[in-house]
Amino acid sequence: xxxxxxxxxxxxxxxxxxxxxxxxxxxxxxxxxxxxxxxxxxxxxxxxxxxxxxxxxxxxxxxxxxxxxxxxxxxxxxxxxxxxxxxxxxxxxxxxxxxxxxxxxxxxxxxxxxxxxxxxxxxxxxxxxxxxxxxxxxxxxxxxxxxxxxxxxxxxxxxxxxxxxxxxxxxxxxxxxxxxxxxxxxxxxxxxxxxxxxxxxxxxxxxxxxxxxxxxxxxxxxxxxxxxxxxxxxxxxxxxxxxxxxxxxxxxxxxxxxx
Length: 259
Hints:
The protein is an all-alpha fold and 259 residues long. It has a domain at 13-124 and 173-212. It contains ten helices and no strands. It has helices at 2-10, 15-41, 46-58, 62-70, 75-80, 91-109, 113-144, 148-216, 220-228, 237-249. The protein is rod-shaped and about 100 Å long.
């Protein structure tokens, strides 16, 4: 009884499988186009951006660093920009903030990848389903007729059924390629963020070491003087170190109590 009902469903035809595959291919092409535009619009020279960012922060200009990141269309700049507010917390805080921002941005970068991966893996099986349904129809026609015309209809039905498998493969291959390309672009963004993060953390660690060495020499008052002389209301260690270099070079007067 159940087999007869399933057979009646199969005899309805496999044309719907082809329409389904065509609809899925249109959606996949739309996702490919959207991702291509997204990565094209957000491209930038991230190596130059990272060098410029470190150079600006080394001078103690956090406002300039923020403006530099705001003017960049890259995804890397969008990830690093919110992290500047964590610089006062030191390298550990910056590292954690970078990881959090990258995790949030990853959802945006991977948009459409689940669909592309699922379609690439399953489109051939959808096409195979259409082929199986077509073969069932063909053998049903074979059972109903014994003349040459019936045999011709059977052969025609089998050949049409194989089309579904071919269409499934045609839909799956671009989806798999797009999935791999998008994954590669996401990996490149993560690598670029990692490079900028390493540069930024190296700068913060070197500045923290310099401040510790100055304090070990008993120059705490000079450090406070350098911080007070900063134009930034909340000076970072980079600002302090920049002012300390001026003090050591003799370009900023040392407080009278240390003379």
